[in-house]
Write a structure and sequence with these properties.
The complex is a heterodimer of chains A (112) and B (116). Chain A has no helices and eleven strands. With 112 residues, chain A is an all-beta fold. In chain A, the strands form two sheets. In chain A, strands 2, 4, 5, 9, 10 and 11 form a six-stranded mixed beta sheet that branches. Chain B is mostly beta strands. Chain B is built from no helices and eleven strands. In chain B, the strands form two sheets. In chain B, strands 2, 4, 5, 6, 9, 10 and 11 form a seven-stranded mixed beta sheet that branches. The chains are: A mainly beta (112), B mainly beta (116). The interface between A and B is medium-sized, with 22 and 25 residues.
């Protein structure tokens, strides 16, 4: 069964304290791994798509990496405005509808 | 680019009435749109997948007669909650996948439904 697990569930950082969020997955043929950011009361905002092991993408203080079993979202020198819930999702090779399997999310709080 | 809107952002309705939520892709055509429900502090729960011009595919446990989905054009999908009950109160979010892309989904801002 396709499954996505994110850790930790919650993370508190001081401003400037770099860290990483983990997304572990088991899927029958990965067609894509997606990272989203969600603020309270809003829809998820697309961040990155990764397609194959070894791929990396960056956007401002965020960098996403992918291996055959997991993805990391590295946050460098975070600021309070980076506080949000970060969602990871995968698209399985067995899906013919584009259905994404979501993890439970990591809620990040960055304190000034 | 890749902007998705939802209307209304908030709606309050009485038990037994129906409410319609619209989802529009503003700057791209979406062959596939998705409807999710999200409970407080929980992840997204897919309700159904809709393709333009065809019937929606509902996830197991989702009542298709209660949650009517119409995908009339490449930029518009609607979700109608029929005979709403308080337990239908939730945050409903749609997403759209642009034609010809790598299955990326772009999400709307969500609709907060409260049934009294």
């Amino acid at each position: 069964e396709d499954q996505v697990t994110q850790s930790p569930e919650a993370l508190r950082l001081q401003e400037g304290e770099s860290s990483s969020l983990n997304c572990s997955y088991t899927v029958s043929g990965l067609r894509g791994l997606f990272w989203y950011r969600q603020d309270p009361g809003k829809g998820p905002e697309f961040l990155f798509t990764l397609y194959s092991a070894g791929e990396e993408k960056e956007k401002e203080r965020l960098k996403a990496t992918l291996t055959k079993k997991e993805s990391f979202l590295h946050i460098t020198a975070p600021k309070p405005e980076d506080s949000a819930t970060y969602l990871c999702a995968v698209l399985s090779g067995s899906s013919n509808t584009g259905k994404l399997i979501f993890g439970q999310g990591t809620t990040l709080q960055v304190k000034p | 680019g890749a902007v998705v809107s939802q209307h209304p952002s908030r709606v309050i309705c009485k038990s037994g009435t129906s409410v319609k939520i619209e989802c529009r892709s503003l700057d791209f055509q979406a062959t596939t749109m998705f409807w999710y429900r999200q409970f407080p502090k929980k992840s997204l729960m897919l309700m159904a997948t809709s393709n333009e011009g065809s019937k929606a595919t509902y996830e197991q446990g989702v009542e298709k007669d209660k949650f009517l989905i119409n995908h009339a054009s490449l930029t518009l999908s609607t979700l109608t909650v029929t005979s709403a009950h308080p337990e239908d109160s939730s945050f409903y979010i749609c997403s759209a996948s642009p034609a010809g892309t790598g299955y990326e989904q772009y999400f709307g801002p969500g609709t907060r439904l409260t049934v009294t």
